[in-house]
Amino acid sequence: MKNSVKDFFSDAEHQDSPLREITDFLEEEYCNEQAGKYSDMRFVGYVLDLGFDNATIITSDPFKKAVGGVPRGSFLIMAPDSLEGMPPHFSLLRVNAAAPTPLSRDVQQTYFELHKKSMPDLDIWTKGELQWGALSADVLGMFFPDPSDAGNIMFSGDVNNIVSAHRYKVYAPTEALLRIIVNGTVRQENQFPIGKLRLTECSLPFANSHPVDTNVCVSTNDFRGFRTAMFGKTRLGKSNVVKIIAQSILETNEDDNSVGQLIFDINGEYANDNPQDGNKSLRSAYPNRCEVYALTPRPNTPSKPLKLNFYEQPDSCISILKTLLEQANQTAQYVRSFSSVQLPSIGDVIALPPGSQRIRAVRRIQMYWAILKKAGFNADEKRLRQLGLTGGGRTSPSHFDPHFNQGVIKAVYGQQGHQPPKTLDELKTHLEQVEQFRQQNKNDPAIQGLFEADDEALLEFFAPTIGGGPRILRPYMMYHDPQAGHFVQQILGYLDGGKTVILDLGNASDEIRQYFSDLLSRAIFSHQEQKFTDNKLAGHFVQLYFEEAHNLFPKEEKDFTGVYARFAKEGAKFHIGMVYSTQSPSTINKELLAQTENFFVAHMSSQGEAEALARLQVQFDGLQRDILKTRTPGYMRMLTFSHRFIIPVQIKKFEATAAGPASGVGQ
């Protein structure tokens, strides 16, 4: 095969190329054929018909047995009889179905006659005729050396030329060639083994054949700043893939801490070990690189409180109360009025100059504080005083004084006067007196124009004429901690330092989960956007992990105002990547899906969902039946930014031990 001067110089040029493997392979096949060692060959068959997109392969039972079978979805390589001095290259095929041969009708007639006559013994000639068949395969593209650097492998999704079908032969790839097929296009930087190549769900081996043992690698650079989707029915390994991806980023960025990760753990499985299943958590594997925030602390998991200080965060916490009250179906008019109130943040109030506007803002927050106090929410009054929330320009230094004018004080208390409240209890009593007077003397000149609509809504909720008022807020005290700090800034600091932060939301309602997701997502987007504006992004990324993504992402196709839509559209620019999982592609906004680069797809039971996936990402077209029929946990169809075609892979089970990065192609 290699006897020309032209071949010699071609070999010299590409002797360091990984694709030299195909040259050596074809030479070995040629030698085995000449020596009659057919059982050692990887030959599958001849090309019966060839186009740019499809090929029909004629094969026989002995060929298929010798290579351990040729199942649907398996990879085959197609190469010409001789490279004829061309650089080493081969076309990649994927088997999709059995195909008829020109003699199919005659073969069927022979089968019919044999069975009709009950003749189990076949003569040699008939046996030879009946064992031939044909396979239909997709032409996925071509592997060839990089013209500018022969040491690199390139892949094209098309072929530059086809010649007569009889000039090609088709082979089952060796382990070395499979490593090129599966990993040859994966970026060399930060490679990590994610599982094993698995061509079929059926694991029954052929006699005298060895099962495929090829590592499938990913580059974590394909996740940083990219979108990754996971689809499939529950309990089929989506969460395990999330752990493996998070682990791969931890392993490959250990030296520079260039990626911070935030995992919204809705079931508590990333933060906490599960002794029943023998599952270790991500936190257990990397205790020094993970920080856990939990709504409800768990005995064996060190964590920081994921709680809110309802007193110190009035602007965001009143929005949470609104959501919780709506969920509890609290529809009384005074409750709806309270839920519609918008409060400023403490910082915004302090920034106001002394005067009536600041006094009104302080008073409104103090009304809200009185509601919390009456509901039973504990407070650290020393911390509240340190906030510096005073009316400004007044003689009273109290942080709990609403600063009503003397006309109101005289009207409510008469001539005996009133001492400004110095505690929350005194503030509560003071506002009860004022509200009682207001309800009984609505036309008194002293209170005319004193309260705006939001003030009245707060006071009517504080002391309702009918209804529970603040008492209905007591179920939500579980989310409050008077010592809770500003955990958002803490988490942003951890992410900037390359830490993996896990939010244990296992005991939270859907509304609370969504609140924390929205709150932190907006904070991270704003943080990264500011770093981009200040030219401080450098090589640092933030990776976010969302489960049950259909509850978060917008349903309307034209809704791009939310933070998740901005992640999809602008996340790469701001070095924000996200991994999201859900059971069904159709529940996610199509425009957001169109921005997704990486896919991990497990079993789906709906033909409509499989078809929706194929319409979204053309590489899945033709694999719908396999996705519907296979349901082994961890068995995925994978497509990453580096991969140009779908790789069937059995994802390895997450273990709480450092796996280490891969090195070299296909390691």
TrEMBL record:
SUPFAM superfamilies referenced in this protein's UniProt entry, alphabetically: P-loop containing nucleoside triphosphate hydrolases
Positions of the Helicase HerA central domain: 214-325
InterPro entries according to UniProt: HerA-like, HerA_central, P-loop_NTPase
Protein name, per record: Helicase HerA central domain-containing protein
Organism this protein belongs to: Halomonas stenophila
